[in-house]
Amino acid sequence: MLVVISTFAVPPGRQQELLDLLRTNAEEVLRHQPGFLTADLLATPDGTTVVNHAHWTNAAAVRAMTADPAVRARMAAAWAIARPVVQQFTLSSSHEAAE
């Protein structure tokens, strides 16, 4: 599994607009991409940061997604608000609460 974390430093007053664009992109485009598993959108209470925390099957799936013209067109609107810092990670371990 590959974890992709995209961190956006958001201009004042535009956090909700960015979240709406990312949410729509995830619902309408990303979830239909081969290799996509999950995505969580996180927002800081002060409105300055948005984080997209996504799980993909592998790096090849992420490369294919980023090359897809439909994805690139959707992301252009988000990138007009804030360019993300994108990092890729392999999952080392995961933990759940004890019952």
Describe the fold and architecture.
By secondary structure, the chain is an alpha+beta fold. It has helices at 15-28, 59-67, 69-81; strands at 2-9, 36-43, 49-56, 84-90. It has one domain: 2-Layer Sandwich (Alpha-Beta Plaits). It is 36% helix and 31% strand. It has a four-stranded antiparallel sheet with strand order 2-3-1-4. Helix 1 packs antiparallel against helix 3. The model has no long low-confidence stretch (mean pLDDT 96).
Rg, alpha carbons? 14 Å
Q: Please list the strands of the largest sheet in the order they lie side by side.
A: 2-3-1-4
Helical stretch tally: 3
Determine the CATH topology. Alpha-Beta Plaits
CATH architecture: 2-Layer Sandwich
Mean pLDDT: 96
Domain ABM: 2-95
Keywords: Monooxygenase, Oxidoreductase
GO molecular function: monooxygenase activity
Organism: Amycolatopsis heterodermiae
Give a quick rundown of the structure:
This protein has helices at 15-28, 59-67, 69-81; strands spanning 2-9, 36-43, 49-56, 84-90. By secondary structure, it is of the alpha+beta class. The chain has a single domain (2-90), classed as Alpha-Beta Plaits (2-Layer Sandwich).
Walk me through the topology.
Elements: E1 2-9, H1 15-28, E2 36-43, E3 49-56, H2 59-67, H3 69-81, E4 84-90
Antiparallel strand pairs: 1-3, 1-4, 2-3
Helix pairs in contact: 1-3
